[in-house]
Amino acid sequence: MAPPSFPVPLPPRTPRTPGRIRVLASSACLMLAATGLTVGPAAANASASPAPAASSASAAVDCDAVPCVALTYDDGPGPYTDELLDTLAAEEVRATFFVVGENAQSSPEPVARTASEGHEVGNHSWAHDDLTEKTGPEVARDLERASLAITGATGSWPDLMRPPYGAVSETSLAHTYYPAILWDVDSRDWTGLDSDEIVDSTMSQVSPGSIVLMHDSIAPTVEAAPELIRRLRDEGYHFVTVSEILDNTALEDGTPYRRRP
Ligand SMILES: [Zn+2]
After folding, report:
1. How many angstroms does the Cα of residue 16 sit away from the middle of ligand 1?
2. Is position 7 within any domain?
3. Structure confidence by residue, pLDDT tens digits, 62-78
4. Would residue 175 show up in a list of annotated catalytic residues for this protein?
5. Is 154 a domain residue?
């Protein structure tokens, strides 16, 4: 699977113009039309399915009134994704998945399931390359290719992206036509921790409004999910998607976000 993520220092924020956002939004639509994107049966089912009950229930959560946390899982879909989705469904927890475009293209079914079960699906680049090593136009093309694959699986264009390795530069952000979602809690699951250590590492850092970095490509992370959810629930946390935990923020393309302000 894709290599693990690690955080890097952030450069200064890059201001964005509404004009650029508008132009890119329409170019994305044109791209979809021009490529004659085929939406497979999985995506058709996903888009035709009514929103699950958990979705409408969680939509009522007020993260100013109760502690919220956004669990995020990167680098899938992979061999453990369905097991994690089973756990989240049993616990009635929704999360956010930042999927790799080429994985979504080769395995669209778990991505379609992820979306149809009320989770948020974001863009984690086409092939998990370090976007800071690309030119600006290459960054834009890479993310667009990934979003086309995700849309082929889910029927919906993703609203958010997460840069592989958390790596961003002024150039990469200037060509990232999505809010760039980082994290304030690194579970450190990518360092070889076992499932108990992943739970302890996360619990020692989490606070209301946190965005937690994890990977559904890592077996102990998926094993840790039931206990992590139990411990967070014991502390009163409500589980929401990244878009929901940032709902008090006017999200701008090409701007990094780490947690609810
Ligand atoms: Zn990653």
Report:
1. 25
2. no
3. 999 999 999 999 999 99
4. no
5. yes
